[in-house]
Design brief:
- This protein has 197 residues and is an alpha+beta fold.
- It has 2 domains: 40 residues; 141 residues, Nucleoside Triphosphate Pyrophosphohydrolase (Alpha-Beta Complex), CATH 3.90.79.
- The chain contains 4 helices and 10 strands.
- The strands form 2 sheets. Strands 4, 5, 6, 7, 8, 9 and 10 form a 7-stranded mixed sheet that branches. Strands 1-2-3 form a 3-stranded antiparallel sheet, with no helix packed on it.
- Strand 2 and strand 3 form a beta hairpin.
- The protein is elongated, with a radius of gyration of 20 Å.
- The N and C termini lie far apart (52 Å).
- The mean pLDDT is 95.
- The protein binds guanosine-5'-diphosphate-alpha-D-mannose (GDD) and magnesium ion (MG).
- Magnesium ion binds next to strand 7.
- The site of magnesium ion (MG) has 3 residues, from strand 7.
- It holds the Pfam family NUDIX.
- Its cofactor is Mg(2+).
- One of its GO terms (molecular function) is hydrolase activity, acting on acid anhydrides, in phosphorus-containing anhydrides.
Length: 197
């Protein structure tokens, strides 16, 4: 049985770049007992991400950028290899991911397919992330990518699929959305993993 929830209070703890709220609510458990609890929830909106793949070449496009939260928690260089991704702003997820693909990687792609939608950190972050896959071809390249301005500073990587997959095991790719999409591509035979001999 699902609990009955009643929100009593929503307090803004921080409202700088994104927003940190503290919610106080009652939750009614299985035995009918009512508890009052408080939890913080970080609201940075929703996002979308995409695995760009080329079936003929068996390659994928990934991005590499500095991520401060990882730098302060054990990632020595702070650099993260990730699938292209961005926040929705006012877009729907499909329009968002087409726009982000062009801004970050320089490819103007046509078809994108949604594969799943995921709460990436359900105990603390409100965000739903919409996951896509989409094929890219060389003739769809319209600019160098890299992000909207010097603040994003994104490197674009084109990698052999098997090499990208091996980078997970070597700890060189350690971003959840990226691992999920590479595994999705392998499980569903979108691309083929070939172990090095
Ligand atoms: N000035 C400033 N800039 C910020 C701050 N926090 C983030 N930014 C910048 O805001 C930009 C947001 O870029 P997007 O491409 O729209 O988002 P993203 O950070 O790539 O987010 C994607 O990846 C996240 C991590 O996996 C996902 O959580 C998110 O849903 C999305 O897919 C980035 O350049 C980021 O550095 C901040 O506190 N201050
Ligand atoms: Mg981004």
């Amino acid at each position: 049985m699902n609990p009955t929830i009643k929100i009593l209070q929503k307090e803004t703890l921080s409202n700088n770049w994104y927003t940190l709220y503290k919610y106080t609510y009652t939750i009614t458990g299985r035995n009918g007992q009512q508890l009052t609890q408080s939890r913080e929830a970080y609201d940075r909106g929703n996002g979308a991400t995409i695995l760009l793949y080329n079936k003929a070449a068996q390659t994928v496009i990934l991005t590499r950028q500095f991520r401060l939260p990882t730098f302060v928690n054990g990632n020595e260089t702070g650099m993260m290899i990730e699938t292209c991704a961005g926040l929705l702003d006012l877009d729907n997820p499909e329009d968002c991911i087409r726009r982000e693909t062009e801004e970050e990687t320089g490819y103007r792609i046509s078809d994108v397919r949604k594969v799943f939608e995921v709460y990436m950190s359900p105990g603390s972050v409100t965000e739903i992330l919409y996951f896509f896959v989409g094929e890219y071809t060389l003739d769809q390249k319209v600019n160098d990518g890299g992000g909207v301005d010097e603040h994003e500073n994104i490197d674009v990587l084109e990698l052999d699929f098997s090499e990208a997959f091996d980078m997970i095991a070597r700890g060189e790719i350690r971003d959840a959305k990226t691992i999920m999409l590479l595994q999705h591509a392998r499980i569903n035979n979108i691309l083929t993993y070939r172990r090095p001999r």
